[in-house]
Amino acid sequence: MDASHAHRHPVFCTVVPPHLLDKIAQSEDTRRADAAQRTLEQDSLLRTRRRVTTVRGIAPALGTPVSDEPRRTIYDTQHRTRLPGKKVRGEGDAASKDATVNRAYAGLGATYELFLKGFGRHSIDDSGLALDASVHYGVDYNNAFWDGQQMVFGDGDGDLFLDFTVSVDVIGHELTHGVTQYTANLEYHGQSGALNESMSDVFGSLIKQYSLDQTAEDADWLIGAGLLGPNVGGVALRSMKAPGTAYDDDELGKDPQPATMDDYVETARDNGGVHINSGIPNHAFYLVATELGGKAWERAGRIWYDTLTGGELASDADFKDFARLSVAAAVARYGDGGAEHQALQKAWSTVGLG
Fold first, then answer.
1. Known catalytic membership, residue 283
2. Where do the H-state alpha helices sit in 29-143?
3. pLDDT digits (tens, 9 = 90+) for 275-319
């Protein structure tokens, strides 16, 4: 790990994109509109207050062992917005009577395990960083986020969105923003921002697949399945298999994600469409993983991890940069002309980045 203190970009990352909340805030249903507006206002306040906490971690001194066990602490904000809140469960403590606390605890553990067992990474910073999370954040708060130091989960409004701890891939998604923060530190706008979001979707999906022991063929490739309320026309927040099909609802609108560069969205909103255009590299990963088959974290995930952490990916990298470096990573690990190399070339060509 690079131990230098490089300039880091302040990033406030939420799993529900602002364009979706903007749509709900225009609802004729006052309760839905008010909940979305409160979430947007809280997110805006958090962005404004966001201090630079993304200084690259310093590697532990040589000879200092890093534990293979996570260090998890769950806090309850009790529907307030002051972090972290009251400690309700620590590492090794008995299960809580609160299912939300237990899901958060399990999700942190699943994320830690995938990165350790799959990639040899010790926590978010690869130096055993403690994993903290706060639950029951705010009132009807329709989001979850990584603030550069910890995870925070809202309960949802119980109508359009349910408890944000119900999807382990959402937990993995947000924690992966921390991994990106400590490695390539991809700038959160334009294509580099969409890559930042895509890294979180990729590893969030892998964490779910790993915890369920699924193959690429068995996986649903959905981000946030189970998060939408029962009356919402949709199955998840995003689909890596078929970007643009995750939801189509009167209140949420239609999923705007493109699957290829032919439909790339030029927009000034959402930091240049970071949650929208991430569908393109997301789909490329899905194509690679299903082409290779088996457990997606073993080969496709390994290539993505090597690309993210290899030191060559610039903070302002675009899609073509990542495609090129991922092919190089595949060749470095698996050789030229093998199945992995061919799967990468085919996938990037399919999404218009050949």
1. no
2. 30-49, 99-113, 119
3. 999 999 999 999 999 999 999 999 999 999 999 999 999 999 999
